[in-house]
Structures are given as structure tokens and as C-alpha cells.
Design goal:
alpha+beta; 2 domains; two-stranded antiparallel ribbon; 38% helix; Smr_dom; Smr domain-containing protein; Smr_dom_sf; DNA endonuclease activity
Length: 210
């Protein structure tokens, strides 16, 4: 699975070192030494500086200092609200390993949902929840869906696993995911994937346009 990484770009402040100013200081030092008639020191200094010429143009050395990425306050509040919402609510319905998941919000046409179930829509992104506990899985889903909205992705896959190795009865993350996604405004529909895309261990998710 290809990893996803979000970068925010921002202008960065710079510090500049001007060689023209540096060469001026050398000229002033030579003049001061001449005024004191210190011939030996002046001769040694000039010999050491042979071949060094004053640059006719100013060249700046740019030292980048990246600023910490700034996240809009409202976006952060929205994220916290989503996480709080996902932590609340009744116990999810319990599913067996081979059970299929299926949901569509009001207004989704039959033809659209059929295409989703057949895997006809191009998958634009995915997230794998294997190995994550309940809290980490919730956070991963929230961040992933926010990323999908930012990128304008409409159809994605979430791999939740079949829960065969779970010490508890049934696939825990699968059952929780069914409840989480039904609460999300941006989720229009979801269903278990085709066998070649993970079968009952993954779902296709159709998202609202941002």
C-alpha cells in the first residue's frame, strides 16, 4: 500500500550574508593598516589576500528556516469534534468475519450503489487499519477522510481485515467501522469490496464532493 503524506507549504523567512559588505571590511582594514605604516603586517596581509577580488555584484546566501506548519483553527476544531463524536455512541453491531457491510445514505440512486458494489469506480486512495487498536483506528479513519476531502477523492478503500487473529469474538474493527462511517456527513455509501480488492476484509467508500 502506498503511504500518504501531507505537506503544507508556506513561505519561509531567510537570513542573508552579503559578500559585498564583507569585501568592504577588508578594504577598510587595509586602509587602517596603511595609516599606521605597519609595512610588515600590511605586506603579509596583502600576500595572503592575493587573488581575492571584490565582487561587482551582490550574491546572497539563503539560509532557510522552515516555519511550523500552520493549521487553521476551525480545521483543528472540526477534527476534535469528529474524534469526540467517534468516541461516543452505543456499542456497534457485531459482525462475523464473512459478513458483508452495506450502507447508503438517503438519495443515493440504485444505479450508483450497484456500480459501487461491483467495484466499477476508480479507487483514488486507501488506508489499511491492520494492527491498529480501537483508538488508533478511529484516529486513522478521521485523518484519512479529512485528507480525502482535501484532495477531492470520491471513491476510496478502507482495509479493516477479517478479524481472524482477534482474541475477541468477531472482527472488532470491522464492526466499529460500520458504526463510525454511518455518522460521517461526507460518507454517501459504503459496501464490502470485491474479492480481488479484499472481499469482506475491506470496503469501498463513496464520498460527497467537497
Amino acid at each position: 500500500m502506498a503511504s500518504m503524506e501531507v505537506r503544507s507549504s508556506a513561505s519561509v523567512p531567510t537570513e542573508r550574508v552579503d559578500p559585498l559588505t564583507f569585501s568592504d571590511s577588508i578594504s577598510r582594514k587595509i586602509a587602517a593598516m596603511s595609516a599606521h605604516d605597519d609595512d610588515e603586517d600590511l605586506s603579509a596581509f596583502r600576500k595572503a589576500m592575493e587573488g581575492v577580488q571584490r565582487s561587482p555584484e551582490t550574491t546572497r546566501i539563503v539560509i532557510e528556516k522552515p516555519l511550523p506548519s500552520a493549521q487553521p483553527r476551525q480545521a483543528r476544531l472540526d477534527e476534535l469534534a469528529v474524534l469526540a463524536e467517534m468516541l461516543d455512541g452505543p456499542d456497534p453491531e457485531t459482525f462475523e468475519s464473512g459478513d458483508t457491510l452495506s450502507y447508503r445514505s438517503q438519495g443515493i440512486q440504485d444505479s450508483v450503489f450497484r456500480k459501487l458494489r461491483r467495484g466499477s469506480y476508480r479507487l483514488e486512495g486507501e488506508v489499511d487499519l491492520h494492527g491498529l487498536n480501537r483508538d488508533k483506528a478511529k484516529g486513522a479513519v478521521a485523518v484519512f477522510l479529512a485528507h480525502c476531502q482535501d484532495r477531492g477523492w470520491r471513491c476510496v478503500r478502507i482495509i479493516h481485515g477479517k478479524g481472524n487473529g482477534s482474541p475477541n469474538s468477531g472482527p472488532v474493527i470491522k464492526s466499529l467501522l460500520d458504526g463510525w462511517l454511518r455518522k460521517r456527513r461526507e460518507v454517501l455509501a459504503f459496501c464490502s469490496a470485491r474479492p480481488h480488492d479484499g472481499g469482506t476484509g475491506a470496503i469501498y467508500v463513496l464520498l460527497r464532493a467537497n
